[in-house]
Write a structure and sequence with these properties.
about 625 residues, alpha+beta, 6-stranded antiparallel β-sheet, 18 helices
């Protein structure tokens, strides 16, 4: 394969300066609320709303019936099945122990949820409404009393507090990073929960982060150890229950008939499949052959070779399998070979740049990819507003100059870094390799009598960790060029379980990774590029980046008060990261290649919502199409 499988005010909200609230039977809680609201009103206006957006207004007002892009009459039933790689031994996706099954988050709900049109917006799910001051130093969520866990017990504010505390104390390190600016989470009554944030934290982001906390059942975990990985289905309030499980082989989930939120506007026309199924395969080729044979129904194709030459089989030729490209309106996935900067041999950026120059994308694209890809150069590739280009603008320099000591001088004196262009006619572009060799010599790595480069008696070695056999054809030519440079380079292909464990513990020189970057980046960037995630096992900081200037730019991004401010800050960060050579960027395509058995309906054809790629929860099972395939023996 060529690609790894890898939020301001609203319309219809009211501003007020409350001096109190009506008493209810929950008098104590209401009095607390009244005091909180009154206290806040002395400092700031309080906004009451059904949703929240990072910048600008919400598209949908409080009485909307469903999102525009769904089919509100979509039938429920049928199966959606796809494939994944690796293995699993757990249904617990929130802890570092074990490997959670694909789709295991379907058990859970959150206070709020997003949609496929507004990258900056969230609407109430478990929360019916929310209120917060304009400075967003706190937020109060008013929860729906009808929200129920799958055992019929109510979802309460106490469960939300428990979820926060449990994830911070016992969950993956990434949760501690995400919630570190939460100063207090408290249940004001059974159905009202308040989050208070550090006033010096990224307040624009924190409210949205609070709304996405997965809600766990406090009562359930009184007898279940949250820290232990398990294949026992956990208790949640989400739309699906566990259906069947074959450890390491497949997992399927069944739609709840009694799902409490199925008729909420945010869910109408969604979660349409009776069964969601994930089939596991050890390698890419086996997975493709299984798809051809009908073992699963939907496949996104990540291999240009397979896409260019493999889709010629009877079911497709007879019209029982559909093959198509879907446009992607989001930034392209941030995919590349990532250095592990925790290792001293990669401390010199000249070494990293030289190693990057040995990857001949142009040859790979012509010889291996059938000319289907373009070279990635930006961490926000395919985004006109977030991708840096040319020399830094005045607005970018206003952010970069105060941090100049932390960044390479090229950030200020050169155009945004773009990888070297090599010849497509031959793998070993001598001109490019000579330039790379000079960089290594400048960094003190000299070729010895054995043809290998040494510095202070240490050999320059490089292990590329890989768990996909189909990626060998891409990495092996890269290894050849690295050896021509005098680098003792090897490809180490391991099984998916070992790869997951080694990546979790940062045990690699170089690894391929792909991140789906947000159209509204924010505090989550700390988990990929922030210093406080560098040594936390299981976090997304695969490069091991630790730079004070980068940390400050991420904070500027998180604190941006307008889309314009955000775009400028992201372009500045993109420019800096590219100049640091923390990765060897790979390739991208502005569309996604998909194939599927012709048994599905979907609410759009040529004009999908901009964030919809891969969002098959708005598709549905078309029984008439399925019967046609059954009659032909193709299903």
């Amino acid at each position: 394969m060529d690609r790894t499988r890898a939020r301001s005010q609203s319309i219809s909200q009211t501003k007020s300066r409350p001096t109190g609230m009506k008493l209810t039977s929950l008098a104590l809680g209401a009095l607390v609320l009244a005091f909180a609201a009154t206290f806040a009103s002395a400092q700031d206006d309080v906004i009451s709303a059904h949703g929240v957006s990072t910048f600008g207004d919400l598209k949908y007002d409080a009485d909307f019936s469903h999102f525009d892009y769904v089919n509100p009459d979509a039938p429920k039933g049928g199966e959606f099945s796809t494939w994944t790689s690796g293995t699993f031994d757990s249904l617990t996706p929130f802890i570092i122990k074990g490997n959670a099954a694909a789709g295991a988050t379907v058990f859970y709900d959150s206070l709020m949820t997003g949609n496929l049109e507004e990258p900056d917006a969230m609407y109430g799910l478990v929360a019916e409404s929310l209120e917060y001051p304009e400075n967003r130093e706190w937020v109060i969520f008013h929860m729906r009393p009808e929200a129920k866990f799958s055992d019929g017990s109510q979802v309460t504010a106490h469960d939300v507090v428990f979820s926060y505390e449990t994830l911070v104390e016992q969950g993956r390190p990434s949760y501690r990073l995400a919630y570190k600016d939460f100063t207090k989470v408290e249940a004001l009554d059974d159905f009202t929960v308040k989050f208070t944030f550090d006033p010096d934290g990224p307040l624009r982001e924190l409210l949205m982060t609070a709304g996405t906390i997965p809600i766990l059942s406090e009562a359930y975990y009184e007898t279940v150890d949250f820290t232990e990985s398990s294949l026992e289905p956990p208790l949640g309030s989400g739309p699906y229950l566990l259906d069947k499980i074959e450890p390491g082989t497949s997992v399927s989930y069944r739609l709840r008939d009694d799902y409490w939120a199925k008729d909420l506007p945010v869910n109408i026309g969604q979660n349409n499949f009776e069964i969601l199924k994930f089939e596991y395969f050890a390698d890419y080729t086996t997975a493709f052959e299984a798809f051809k044979g009908g073992a699963y129904l939907f496949r996104e194709e990540y291999s240009s070779k397979v896409w260019g030459t493999g889709y010629d089989f009877p079911a497709l030729n007879d019209g029982y399998v559909i093959k198509e490209d879907l446009p992607d309106g989001r930034p392209a996935g941030t995919q590349g070979f990532w250095f592990n900067l925790r290792r001293d041999k990669f401390s010199d950026p000249r070494v990293r740049e030289a190693i990057g120059m040995a990857f001949n994308f142009e040859w790979s694209n012509e010889s291996l990819f059938y000319g289907l890809y373009e070279r990635t150069d930006s961490f926000w590739e395919n985004s006109r507003t977030l991708q840096a280009s040319g020399m830094p603008t005045e607005a970018e320099l206003a952010l970069l100059e105060p941090l100049r000591e932390h960044f390479p001088e090229s950030v200020f004196t050169e155009e945004a870094f773009v990888p070297a262009t090599s010849s497509a006619d031959e793998l070993a572009d001598r001109r490019t390799l000579r330039r790379a060799g000079r960089l290594l010599e400048e960094a003190g790595w000299i070729v010895g009598d054995d043809g290998i480069r040494y510095k202070d008696g240490q050999k320059l070695t490089l292990e590329v960790l890989n768990d996909s056999p189909s990626f060998d054809r891409i990495i092996n030519p890269y290894i050849e060029n690295l050896k021509r440079l005098g680098i003792d380079a090897v490809l180490n292909r391991v099984d998916p379980a070992e790869s997951q464990e080694r990546e979790k513990n940062f045990d690699y020189d170089m690894v391929t990774q792909r991140f789906a970057m947000s159209q509204t980046p924010g505090d989550e960037l700390r988990q990929i590029f922030g210093s406080d995630s560098v040594n936390a096992p299981g976090t997304a900081n695969v490069a091991g980046l630790q730079n004070e200037g980068v940390d400050k730019l991420i904070r500027i991004i998180a604190d941006a008060q307008s889309r314009e401010e955000l775009d400028v800050a992201v372009r500045a960060l993109d420019r800096v990261l590219r100049a640091m050579h923390i990765w060897v960027p790979q390739w991208y395509k502005g569309v996604h290649n998909i194939a599927y058995r012709d048994v599905f309906g979907r609410p759009y054809a040529d004009n999908p919502p901009p964030l919809s790629m891969g969002e098959t929860s708005i598709w549905w099972w078309d029984e008439d199409k399925a019967q046609r395939l059954r009659d032909a023996g193709a299903l």
